[in-house]
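Researcher: Can you fold this with iron/sulfur cluster in place?
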Amino acid sequence: MIAERSPCLDLQGLANRAGLGSVARKVLAGERLSREDGVALYRTEHLHVLGLLANHVRERLHGDLTYFNVNQHVNYTNLCNKLCRFCAFQRLPGQDGAYQMTPEQAATKIREQLGEPVTEVHMVAGVWPKIPYEYYLELLRAVKAARPSIHIKAFTMVELDQIAKVAKKPLEEVLPELIAAGLGSVPGGGAEVFSERVRQETYHLKLSGDQWLDTARKVHRAGLKSNCTMLHGHIETIEERVDHLDRLRLLQDETGGFQTYIPLSFHPDNSEMADVPGPTAVDELRELAVGRLMLDNIPHIKAYWILMDVPVAQTALSYGADDVDGTVVEERIYHDAGATTPQHVRRSELVQWIRDAGRIPVERDTLYKVVWSADPMRAPVGQPAPVSRSLAGAS
Ligand code: SF4
């Protein structure tokens, strides 16, 4: 159990003066925030008070511990027929830069990193209906054969829906077969914003919010953990963001299957929505903080460094985030959309970033078992990452 820091400031008084008194009372009492509270948090001009509230919850749950992992990304194809307007990664066959890796090529990517202490491969891609079911099984088997110890976190809910279609079987039957081939957990992408209005305007060929949530429900019932996300900073309203968070929270009440919430910053470059400015660093911090405060039943909040400048990710560790993702190795989706962060970092750099932010680095595996710890007393190696008390419980 993590000791709570003794508060050295009058958080309730600060929140009162910022017009967030009733929200702060609930946060300090460990009570669930309402949708109206969520709207108030998005609208407040007092970013520092919002950050302090989110940090209070972050430290109540995790103290100073901050998680990362040593992972690599494999984006096995950019072929996609979903034509999401915000996407710069998708290609149609014959278009410049279109590619699809064979399972063996994906395995080669894994073998190239055998000298690194990689514990996870994050494998997501476009959605292409001509890819047969057997390809996905072979992909998993090839990756696993290349590095048997690796945890495969693969296939967004959107990809899983497509895989079930080409398998011509219900997802409930497909998931055990994917697991037998090596699937260990599921990432959280493809959720975008659940609002049907946003979907019709930006990603109308892809799963609706209800379908994404139902797919996640099936994933969790199959015994797999997943993450969850929201793509923010484009045309969505504050109310639509709050609705999205609330619906994630409700499914989490039901399944408990989400490990981590990751707000994904919209990157406009090279997409059909290049005229939309995208979120600022302040927007990113606000999004992380509201996520931490609203999602009282999801253990971890990730500041995904690949999407935001590293100093913003470091600052985010005081705005509710307790995880920074991993070493990555060759990220393509967000770099096609103009991300200017590096495509990978060394493990030692991640450790230093976290230390420089005044936090305690802890390497985790995909399912949050501690792999290495700068504070083995609080986060012992080989044990599950400690999360203080019940997530929604009082401090
Ligand atoms: S966001 Fe995903 S599903 Fe949409 S077009 Fe891009 S690759 Fe395809």
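Model: Folded with iron/sulfur cluster in place. The chain has a mean pLDDT of 93.
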